[in-house]
# Entry
Amino acid sequence: MANIFAFAETRNGELRKIALEAVTAARSLADVTGGNVDAFIAGAPGISGSAAQLAKYGADTVIVAEHPAFEKYNPEAVAAIVADRIRAGGYRVAIFPTSALGSDLAPRVAAKLGAGLVTDVTDIKLEADAVIVKHPVNIGKVLSTVRISSNPALVAIRANMFTPVEKPRAGAVQIAQPVGDPSASRVVVKEVKMGGGTKLDLGEAPVIVSGGRGLKGPENFHLVEELAAAFGNAAVGATRVVTDEGWRPHSDQIGQTGRLVSPQLYVAVGISGAIQHLAGMRTSKTIVAINKDKEAPIFKIADYGIVGDLFEIVPALTAAVKEAKARG
Ligand code: FAD
# Structure
C-alpha cells in the first residue's frame, strides 16, 4: 500500500505538461502498490485552482503550498516544504521533473532527505520492493538500469516519456504550511526570462522541426519555421553549429550541451547526426531526416529518411502537411 508523491511543476500560475506526466507516472506506480498518489503544487495564492486538473490525472490528494514568495519558484523554501512533506508522508517514490526547475529542486530535496536520486529517467518499475529506473548515459549511447535502494527513492523523469492519461480520483485538497518564512529565503528568483521566443517549449512540444548547417545561413531558417507552423504544434530546434554561428538563439540548441527532447515527431533538416546532437533527441518517438548525403549518420537512427536537397524537399513537405491538415 505504498504511497507515491508527485511534484507538479507550474509556470506563471499554470500547470506544465510535465506536471501531468509526473502524476501519470505516479498513478501507474500506485496502481501496482495499491497506495495513493499525493500531488504537490507550490505557487502564489490561487494556485489551488489547478488541483482539479491533477485529480483528473490520478491524484488522490493534492497538497497545496500557497505563498506570495512561491510565485516564481523559491529554491530554499520550496525544497524545505517538499522535503518536509515527503518525510512526513512516508512515500516509497517521489517523482520530479527533469526540467530547469526540477534539476534545481530534486537534488536539494534528496540532500535534505539523504535519499538516492536518479535524473533524466525514461522508465520506472517496481519489482518486489525495489525501485528500478532506466536513464540514458554516455551521451545517450547506453541505457542504464538503476536500482534505487533508498527509501524514499527520488526519481526525476524526462519530459514526454510518460504520456498523460486521465484517471480521475478525488483530489482532496490539503493545505501545507511553509517551513519557516519563505520571504526570508537567501535565494530570490527575481525574473524568469523565456528563451527562443517561440510559443511552445522545446521540452513539451509534440513535434520539433530542427535545422542544421545544411540550411547554409539564417536567411533560410524560414523553411524550418514554415514547416513547424504547418504542423501547428511544433517548436523549432537547431544544432550547436547553428546556435554557435548565431543563426538561432542558444536556447534552441538540442543535444549533449543543449536541450534533451523526446517529441512524438522529430524532423531533422540538414543535420548530419553527430553523436552530441543525437544525445539530445534519440529518444524521440519518430525521427524523420532530410539530408542530401545518404551516408549521413542521422539516417542510422531515423525511422524515415529522405535523401535529397532540403531546399526542394522542405517546401514540398510543408505544402503536403498543409494539404493534409486542410483535408482534416
Ligand atoms: P554538419 O555536421 O556540418 O552537417 C550538415 C549536414 O547538412 C550534412 O550532413 C550535409 O550533408 C547536410 N546538407 C548540406 N546541404 C544540404 C542540402 N542542401 N540538403 C540537405 N542536406 C544538406 N552539436 C549539437 O547539435 N548539439 C550539442 O549539444 C552539441 N554538443 C557538443 C559538445 C561537444 C563537447 C562537442 C565537441 C560538440 C558538440 N556538438 C553539438 C557539435 C557536434 O559535434 C556537431 O558539430 C554538430 O552537431 C553538427 O551540426 P550540423 O549537423 O548542423 O552540421
